[in-house]
Amino acid sequence: MYKGVNAFANPLRTGITNFFSTSIKRTVNNKLTFATGYTQLRKMSSVTGFYIPPISFFGEGALEETADFIQNKEYKKALIVTDPGIAAIGLSGRVQKMLEERGLDVAVYDQTQPNPNTGNVLDGLKVLKKQDSEIVVSIGGGSAHDNAKAIALLATNGGDIGDYEGLNRSKKAALPLFAINTTAGTASEMTRFTIISNEEKKVKMAIIDNNVTPAVAVNDPSTMFGLPPALTAATGLDALTHCIEAFVSTASNPITDACALKGIDLIQESLVNAYNDGSDKKARTDMCYGEYLAGMAFNNASLGYVHAIAHQLGGFYHLPHGVCNAVLLPHVQEFNMECPKAKKRLGEIALHVGASQAIPEETIKALHAFNRTMNIPRNLKDLGVKTEDFGILAENAMKDACHVTNPVQFTKEQVVAILKQAYEY
Fold it and tell me: Would you tell me how many other CB atoms lie within 10 Å of the CB of residue 374?
């Protein structure tokens, strides 16, 4: 119906074994370890799963296409989950009006915070239960989507969101989630990852669960034209981090490799243009595809120590996730060169970030240069990180589920060394 809107259905959704399938157990400090052991998980089975939402819409007009799709499914009650910023610019009101014009009763929770916490989840769940919502519609970036995933999961499974920290701990499908993206970075609109902060413990909980995968992912570039340059940079560099960590992951495969490298190409070609001119339609559209490809890569190959450490910085200091990733990315990859395969792959990436030779050191230089081009803080010192916290940050990073597929399993001393290097750079 709407020109430029493409639907992408996943033909591999049913009957494929999740490579993350493994038994898990809790430790005394409520963190998670894998009962089968990290080495066994990293070896992979002979069966590889590939997971994305059943349907995704891309292009201008995707909002209207999504509203029509919801109407055709004959849903009657929807909860919109968003944040104060999206509410203030009227986007959530626009979507609410679209749905109401199509016969839906719409409730709204618009108090999601950056780095959403357990309180946001519970408050949103109260609104959902009061309305008896059938579906959830998230509008925003990673924070809104993550909060909505958690709300939709608890609506059907009960308990506390901390009960689902780790890998595939839920028993029931979440309520159908329609994830409308407004940033080109987190890819939370299409992944089975949700990150929720436990403010009491100052940690971020990683919930990696097939049941939180959105039913429909929506990337309409018109929702991103007004995104400020700083947020464009932070979210775009988050997407770049997804590509690179997935490409060097021990769980990578030919499909995730293709997604990661094409994602890098699109981000390399488009991010600075979108940063310099937020209304650049081509740049915004290409970033929609680039960040989605990045999501396809890491949703199936997972991530590494950049995210494992960044989660701790976000939980401890309430720092922006994308900025933490951008600052950490070149330093973690420099340490990853200890692994011959990762070193070779970092050399391959060099050719996709503007270097003329496949040399891993050129990739590291390019990442630093990319950060400087978009005025990312130079180091962790500039972000207000404290050296006396390095020990606890390292310990928590080593318990984060994202580190499992990093090409090198660092010691605590090595993680501290990474933090020190990123602090002093």
Answer: 18
Based on the fold, state whether residues 375 and 272 are members of the same structural domain: yes
pLDDT at 11 over 50: no
Distance CA 121, CA 224 (A): 25
Say if residue 134 is in the same domain as residue 272.
no
- Do both 210 and 252 map to the same domain? no
**Mean per-residue pLDDT of the chain:** 90
Q: What is the mean pLDDT of residues 325-346?
A: 98
* C-alpha pair distances (Å), 1 with each of 57, 66, 67, 106: 12, 11, 12, 24
pLDDT, position 45: 59
| Cβ atoms < 10 Å from Cβ of 317 | 17
| Token duo for residue 185 | 């970075």
Residues 295 and 338 in one domain: yes
Q: Which residues contact 360 (CB under 8 A, 6 or more apart)?
A: 333, 337, 343, 344, 346, 347, 349, 350
Residue 403 resides in a domain: yes
Contact present, 292 and 187 (Cβ < 8 Å): yes
297 in the same domain as 211: no
Of 223, 249, 277, the domain-final residue: 223
pLDDT surpasses 80 at 9: no
> What one-character-per-residue DSSP string does 168-182 give?
S--SSPPPPEEEEE-
Q: What is the pLDDT of residues 226-282, one digit of tens each?
A: 899 999 999 999 999 999 999 999 999 999 999 999 999 999 999 999 999 999 999
Output the domain CATH number for residue 296: 1.20.1090.10
Report pTM. Answer: 0.88
Tell whether 101 and 240 lie within a shared domain: no
pLDDT of the residue at 199: 85
Q: Average of pLDDT values for 60-85?
A: 97
Q: What is the domain range of residue 294? A: 229-424
Structure tokens at 275: 């940063």
Question: Given a cut of 50, is residue 33 above it in pLDDT?
Answer: no
End-to-end CA distance of the chain: 52
Picking from 416, 404, 420, the residue whose alpha carbon sits closest to that of residue 307 is: 404
| Among 223, 256, 286, residue at a domain's last position | 223
Number of domains in the chain: 2
